[in-house]
Design brief:
Largest sheet: 2 strands, antiparallel
Helix content: 55-70%
Distance between the termini: 61 Å
Structural class: mainly alpha
Oligomer: single chain
Number of helices: 13
């Protein structure tokens, strides 16, 4: 087993293993799904037009967990992260096959989150000065960490509505957190850079088959497992306290799923419907309505995500208070631009 500190060469084999397992597993998954008719049917909310398997998350899970258990460390809470992933894998695959009630899925997410927080002691302990708050009381720490894990996990699930989008954003997010942890992390954080590279390898293998015109989808199996992993990476990134304005920087890294989730929840609440009611108000739906193709939409959102990461890292020395205002301004500006171009498109039509 490789022990930290890692050299960059140490990441080659875990990445390659995760990639190979994922990229070679998917053709078999697609074959079985078509033989057994385990396919996702198009509906009014989807953008695909053909029957497509939703079991790509099985390959992501196989590549990620096998690579991490072979090449990574299971210390510092990682074994409990893997336990949470296994639990989410089973509820995810059941939902992808036969559908599961929202209550059951939520209960299992709570269970997985509890294992990570309580047994793994993976939690946010400080706001690092946001709103004048520094160290958190133990109860507030658990409550806020719970909201962070559940929020990020479900936000990844919500952006998984376009070929290649969720996978590309996950690669950007995991790479960013992994690099920061590798550069700035102390020994107890460094194993999480291996967690990141294993996830990246598995998702890139999956993306080989998921870009437009996708022949397989990530499904709840992939989005729930990947969402849990990146939420833990975000927590570890914040807890390092080595990057200026760490909490705000973490939001910038996750800007696309967070912005999309907050936006659609706000729209649904204003309309007087449940924030969990499905619709076509997601940011990728709006960009498609403006006239972008699926590939252009994925590229635009990925570029926006990368630009926000670079901008926030450049501005982070100004502190959390400034960064909170900057992010809020970007949220408002991005929403106004979407509304402006959307109305312009309607006027032309």
């Amino acid at each position: 087993m490789i022990q930290p500190p890692y050299s960059y060469f140490d990441f080659v084999l875990p990445f390659t293993w995760a990639f190979i397992i994922s990229v070679f597993a998917i053709p078999s998954i697609i074959f079985v799904a078509h033989i057994k008719n385990l396919l996702d049917e198009p509906n009014v909310r989807t953008v695909h037009h053909s029957l497509t398997p939703r079991l790509g998350g099985v390959a992501i899970f196989a590549g990620f967990t096998s690579s991490l258990t072979i090449f990574g460390s299971l210390d510092f809470g990682i074994q409990f992260l893997l336990a949470g992933c296994i639990i989410l894998f089973f509820i995810g695959i059941k939902d992808d096959l036969v559908s599961v009630s929202a209550f059951k899925k939520f209960f299992v997410q709570i269970l997985a989150t509890g294992i990570v927080m309580i047994l793994g002691d993976i939690r946010i302990t400080s706001f690092q000065g946001i709103f004048g708050i520094h160290e958190l009381e133990i109860g507030a720490s658990y409550a806020f960490t719970f909201l962070v894990i559940m929020g990020i996990s479900n936000s990844i699930n919500l952006i998984d509505g376009l070929d290649g989008l969720a996978g590309t954003i996950l690669v950007i997010v995991a790479c960013t957190f992994g690099l920061f942890i590798q550069f700035f992390g102390s020994p107890e954080f460094l194993p999480y850079s291996m967690v990141a590279i294993c996830l990246v390898g598995a998702i890139i293998g999956f993306l080989r088959y998921n870009f437009y015109n996708a022949v397989v989808f990530m499904g709840d199996t992939g989005s729930l497992v990947s969402g849990l992993v990146v939420s833990v990476l975000a927590i570890k990134f914040i807890e390092m306290a080595k990057v200026p304005a760490g909490p705000s920087m973490a939001v910038c890294v996750l800007i696309v799923p967070i912005f999309d989730t907050l936006r659609v929840f706000f729209i649904r609440i204003v309309k007087g419907v449940s924030p969990f009611s499905p619709d076509k108000n997601h940011i990728h739906h709006q960009l498609l309505k403006i006239g972008l193709t699926q590939l252009q939409t994925v590229f635009a959102l990925s570029l926006f995500n990368l630009l926000m990461i670079f901008l926030c890292h450049w501005l982070s020395p100004l502190g959390n208070s400034f960064m909170v205002l900057f992010i809020a301004g970007m949220f408002v500006s991005a929403n106004l631009l979407l509304e402006f171009f959307g109305r312009g498109k309607k006027a032309i039509e």
